[in-house]
Amino acid sequence: MQDKSVTNREGFTSNIGVIAATLGSAVGLGNIWKFPYVTGENGGAAFILVYLICVTLVGLPVMIAELMIGRRTKRNAVEAFEQLAPRKPWFLVGVAGVISAFLIMAFYTCVAGWVYAYIFKAATGSISSTQTKVTSAIFSSLSKSVAQPLFWQLLVLLVTGAIIMTGVTKGIERVTKILMPILFLLLLVVDIRSLTLPGANKGLNYLFNPDFHKITVTVILAALGLAFFKLSIGMGAMITYGSYVSDDQNLPATALTVMLSDTLVSIMAGVAIFPAVFAFGIKPDAGPSLLFITIPAIFSAMPFGNVFMVLFFILVSIAATGAMLSLLEVPVAFMREKLNWSRAKSTVATVVGIALVGSTATLSNSILANVLVFGKNLFDFYDFVTSNILLPLGGIFIALFVGWFWGYQNVKQEFSNHGELSNDGIHKIYMFLVRIVAPIAIIIVMLAGLNII
Ligand code: TRP
């Protein structure tokens, strides 16, 4: 029974395909929307430095761990643990991952909806203004209304659901291979425009000249959470994607490539936004609306700005969609394989569930604004709980699982593809990171950042 479904499983077909799909999951609103605004809220360059340490010492090892678990078992996030550790509670890590997928998608689809809406607003010229008072009022009127953002959120879910329904691997591979390079080039154009605005160097200074007094435990927790969010780790998305990777792929090299490229895209988004923030006199800590205030202003200050702006929001929506595919695929793969549902049924169930939770995130900017959990509205709460609690917690258990339970021999085999590749010595460093450094770092940062110690 199990063997049959394993051989019938789809998979990514080439090295480039694996990288494109994994990068497609990593690159998304996290880079273009979240990275700049979280950097702005946490003081700029010093935050970025902490972030870089987090992705290297914690993010990369956990990402490799997830890919290895997935590829070895060729199963979804829950059953992968069941297979490697039968009748042990490790599968709960996968269950938490399925729940996280719904919570992340709740606010992710809301933001993606704003991005979709901005394609059309840019096309009609209704958001062009170099006055950030104007662009921020336009954004508020979208996010604070009721029907409009719900409509766009639903559209996002229908589009993403439709792609997932047709089967994930071939579609993802093809789309991401073409679109990632275009997104990259367009970001370069925005970077150049932003850098040539008067007063741009203030933004660069903010981004690259660290003020170490700004580093607090809350800042470190935010950086760690962002690292998890950015690399799509801590909830089984990379286990699920790993399960579509063939046995001859070099997993550590793939993860490293993805991590470096993803970081580059984030930095490029920062270079697009912050020079403009200072040139237009916006507060860097404007929060989740930052992208939607700055980008229209930047484009409005350049020739053919509207055309570029439409293109920009199209590409961001595609990047967001690529990332959402990996989020949707976690519950979908689980329902298909565990409950034996068809891909269509699993997708519909997931989409309906996300639409229900997601509408509460969207409406928390309007009619549900007074519903507060731990002092946060629902949108911020879903975001905080996933990035700062569930993903890091998942990361601890995944690292401990691979480092201590699965152990040295298995890691060695997966690193060298059973002796095919020479990854001599790297797996020893890796073992140290995944056994000791990553779990301890996450525990300390979480306990301190959440004010528990
Ligand atoms: N990494 C994506 C981004 O930056 C978001 C994402 C996709 C994600 N899949 C995930 C985050 C899984 C956490 C877990 O936009």
UniProtKB/TrEMBL annotation:
SUPFAM superfamilies: SNF-like (SSF161070)
GO cellular component assignments: membrane
CDD domains named among the record's database cross-references: SLC6sbd_Tyt1-Like (cd10336)
Subcellular location: Membrane
Keywords, ordered alphabetically: Membrane, Symport, Transmembrane, Transmembrane helix, Transport
Membrane topology: Multi-pass membrane protein
Domain of life, source organism: Bacteria
Pfam families: SNF
Transmembrane region(s): 12-33, 45-69, 90-119, 150-168, 175-195, 215-241, 253-282, 307-328, 348-369, 389-408, 429-450
MF-aspect GO terms: symporter activity
PANTHER family on file: TRANSPORTER (PTHR42948:SF1)
Homology family: Belongs to the sodium:neurotransmitter symporter (SNF) (TC 2.A.22) family.
Database matches in NCBIfam families: Na_transp (NF037979)
Name of the protein described by the UniProt record: Transporter
